[in-house]
Structure formats: structure tokens, C-alpha cells
Write a structure and sequence with these properties.
Elements (H helix, E strand, L loop, with lengths): L4 H7 L26 H9 L13 H14 L3 E5 L2 H12 L5 E5 L4 H13 L3 E5 L15 E7 L11 H10 L3 E5 L17 E5 L13 E5 L4 H10 L6 H33 L4 E5 L9 H7 L6 E6 L4 H9 L5 E2 L9 E5 L16 E5 L5 H18 L1
Parallel strand pairs: 2-3, 2-4, 4-5, 5-6, 10-11
Antiparallel strand pairs: 1-7, 6-7, 8-9, 9-12, 11-12
The structure holds pyridoxal-5'-phosphate (PLP).
The site of pyridoxal-5'-phosphate has 12 residues, from helix 4.
């Protein structure tokens, strides 16, 4: 019997016997690699994807992180990248060329959209945005030029849960590669390759890092897609810093324990907010009312601490009064660290296929690891300020 995921996460990418019994793999910094002979030099040249070849392409620290991420996502192999956005760009560039079409989910992380509408458009790659809830209806959008379909489920601002398996089936029938931004599940609560995904990316900056002190990404691939991903990252000169890979690896060891607490607190806050008269709607994939909730129940094994909410029709000044006075929840972008965050969001700015209909203010909350009662207290006082300023 194979190891359970929690045990695997503690053991993958780790060989104390190779490092004097030291528990964590050390940080190797390198550019030049010195070879013992011309024969060894030529052998390394012929196998650039295996072992230490040149510092740019990774050191044993990078490989340890990559091995652990590949186990987390149940993929064949992973490539570490300098950021989550670099992982998205590397994965897209691996499968798209001039004249190709890309189907991109309308709820995508906004820098992903900027990449498609800017750089990729300039390269002659056309992006068509689609409804996150399209399911197998995506078949109607697939053409022979469609080389890739990108899913991000749930969307990190609007939280629609996608039917990834149905989308992947239609994409494969049309010969397209399926790429997923799997950051919300942290790779732990959704198994991308069991649902037909070919390449899964993680912004390791979020839950894998977990402490808001590193920027790191990873692309996990199947055996069929790995070489193309790795070649693209090498061609682009991608490099993930060994110190950040070390921190990413350290974060992975506690990911499951932290995520369980993020989940519990996130649900506690979301349920409390749902009962408040100031709140119109909660956008939490694990709660009824979130678009795609039934798909979440079918496909996910858990939820992280990131969710959204739509307030009743308050002014932006009232929302600012609520947020400015927060003592525990901090106003901040990004997410996945130990600290709780709250942010006003503007989903309408980033939609083209299906306009965002709510005109009332939306907020995004990242539930951190604090005592949940302190967070509730902070939110309760914040809602009092919201009403006071209305
Ligand atoms: C869903 C999602 N994907 C990717 C990224 C990009 O990660 P990074 O900040 O490491 O580039 C982010 C960052 O906010 C994100 O929210």
C-alpha cells in the first residue's frame, strides 16, 4: 500500500542519509558545476533534465521541492518557477504558438488575463474567455486552432467551481491541452490529474509557503507533458531561488495541518457572516449558494480559508470605514499566509464572457490561524462602523 498523503508530504524530497542524518535537505546555491572528466561533462550535456546540470536549471534543493510538489499533486514531475505567475506563463507558452487559440476561464486571476490580452496577443495567440460554469458546453467553443484550455477552480475572486472533468473531456476530444491553476486547493483538496488536467500550476507563494515571506511557483506535469514544460522553462531562463525552494519545502511539511485550520476558521467566519443583515451573499465553495457548490461537493475533499462575500448596497466610503479600523484582519493582497486578510474587490473589471452582475461592494477574506473569536470580534466591530458610516 502506498503512503497516505499526509505521510508522503512529510517524506517526499527528503533523504537524511545523504546529508549526515540532517532532517531537512540543505540549501545548495550554484551556478557552475565542475565535472571530473570530459566524459562526465559530455554525459551531463546529453541529459540536461536529470540531475545537476547548471545552477539555472536547479540544484538538489530545487529538485527536493519539485519532488515534494509532484507528490502533493500526484503528478509525474514538477518544475519550480520564480513565481506563481511565471508558472502560469511557462505552462501557457509550452503549449501555445502563433495562430493558436486559447480558451481562458472568465474568472481567471487578473494578471493571467493581462498576460493573455498583452504578451500572448502580441505573439499572435488569440484568447477567448468562457463562462466558468460552462461545463461540457465548452465543446461549442472548441475549434481546430484551440491548443489549450485553462481552468482556475474556484476563481480566486468570485469562487465559481468549475466542472473540470467535463471541460477536460471535451478539450481532449478536440485535441487541446488542459492547464489548471490549482492554487485554491493548495494541491491538497483537489486532485487535478484524476479530473483530466494535463498540467497543474501552483502559486506556492500562498499556502505552500504559508508565511507571507516568499514568492514561488510550480508547474506539475504528466509524463506526456513534462518534457515540453521543462524545455520551455529552460528556454525562458526560469530559475527558482534555492532559499525560496527551501522555504517552500519547509512549508509543505505543515501544509495539511495548517490548511485544516484555515478551512475550519474560514467556514466559521463565512457561516457567521451569512447570518448578518449587512451581507447579501457568501461566495464560499463549500457552502450552498456558491456557484458550482454541487461540483465542489463531488470533486473536492476540503476548502482553504479564502472566500468572498457580497455586501448589501453600501457606499465605498462606508466599506472603507469598516476596513480601515480592523485590528486583526489586515488589508492585503495575496493570501495563504498565517495572518488573516480582508480586501475590497472589483470583479466587474475582470469579466468579459459573463458580466459580473452585482453592483454592491464585494469583499475577499483570507481566514488565517488566529483565534476565530478574535476575528469575529474584529468583523463585528467592522460591521458596526459600516452601519455607522452608511
Ligand atoms: C489564483 C492565483 N494564481 C496565481 C497567482 C500568482 O502567484 P504569484 O504571486 O506567486 O505570482 C495568484 C496570486 O495572487 C493567485 O491568486
Amino acid at each position: 500500500m502506498g503512503m497516505k498523503k499526509d505521510t508522503l508530504l512529510l517524506n517526499s524530497g527528503r533523504k537524511p542519509e545523504d546529508h549526515h542524518g540532517i532532517v531537512n535537505p540543505p540549501v545548495y546555491h550554484a551556478s557552475t558545476i565542475i565535472r571530473a572528466s570530459v566524459e562526465a561533462y559530455e554525459k551531463a550535456e546529453n541529459t540536461p533534465f536529470d540531475g545537476v546540470y547548471y545552477g539555472l536549471h536547479g540544484t538538489p534543493t530545487t529538485f527536493a521541492f519539485e519532488e515534494a510538489v509532484a507528490s502533493l499533486e500526484d503528478g509525474y514531475r514538477a518544475v519550480a518557477t520564480c513565481s506563481g505567475l511565471a508558472a502560469i506563463a511557462g505552462a501557457l507558452l509550452a503549449f501555445l504558438k502563433a495562430g493558436d487559440r486559447l480558451l481562458m476561464v472568465d474568472a481567471a486571476y487578473s494578471p493571467t488575463r493581462r498576460l493573455c490580452d498583452g504578451l500572448l496577443a502580441g505573439f499572435g495567440i488569440e484568447t477567448t474567455y468562457y463562462d466558468p460554469l460552462i461545463g461540457d458546453g465548452i465543446a461549442d467553443l472548441l475549434r481546430k486552432e484551440t491548443a489549450a484550455v485553462f481552468v482556475e477552480s474556484p476563481g480566486s475572486l468570485t469562487f465559481e467551481v468549475q466542472d473540470v472533468a467535463a471541460i477536460a473531456k471535451a478539450a481532449h476530444d478536440a485535441g487541446a491541452t488542459v492547464i489548471m491553476d490549482n492554487t485554491w486547493s493548495a494541491g491538497l483538496y483537489f486532485a487535478p490529474f484524476d479530473h483530466g488536467v494535463d498540467v497543474s500550476i501552483q502559486a506556492a507563494t500562498k499556502y505552500i509557503g504559508g508565511h507571507s515571506d516568499l514568492i514561488l511557483g510550480a508547474i506539475t506535469a504528466t509524463e506526456e507533458t513534462f518534457a515540453r514544460v521543462k524545455r520551455t522553462c529552460v528556454s525562458l531562463g526560469y530559475h527558482a531561488a534555492p532559499d525560496d525552494c527551501y522555504l517552500g519545502l519547509r512549508g509543505l511539511r505543515t501544509l495539511s495541518t495548517r490548511l485544516a485550520r484555515h478551512q475550519e476558521t474560514g467556514l466559521h467566519l463565512a457561516r457567521w457572516l451569512a447570518r448578518r443583515p449587512e451581507v447579501d451573499r457568501i461566495l464560499h465553495p463549500a457552502l450552498p449558494g456558491c456557484p458550482g457548490h454541487e461540483v465542489w461537493k463531488r470533486d473536492f475533499t476540503g476548502a482553504c480559508g479564502l472566500f468572498g462575500l457580497v455586501l448589501k448596497d453600501y457606499s465605498s466610503e462606508a466599506v472603507a470605514a469598516m476596513l480601515d479600523g480592523m485590528k486583526v484582519l489586515a488589508i492585503g493582497e495575496s493570501w495563504g499566509g498565517y495572518e488573516s486578510l480582508i480586501l475590497p474587490t472589483k470583479p466587474a473589471r475582470n469579466r468579459t464572457a459573463v458580466p459580473w452582475s452585482a453592483t454592491a461592494p464585494t469583499l475577499r477574506i483570507h481566514a488565517g490561524l488566529e483565534d476565530p473569536e478574535d476575528l469575529i470580534d474584529d468583523l463585528e466591530k467592522g460591521l458596526a462602523r459600516l452601519n455607522g458610516a452608511a
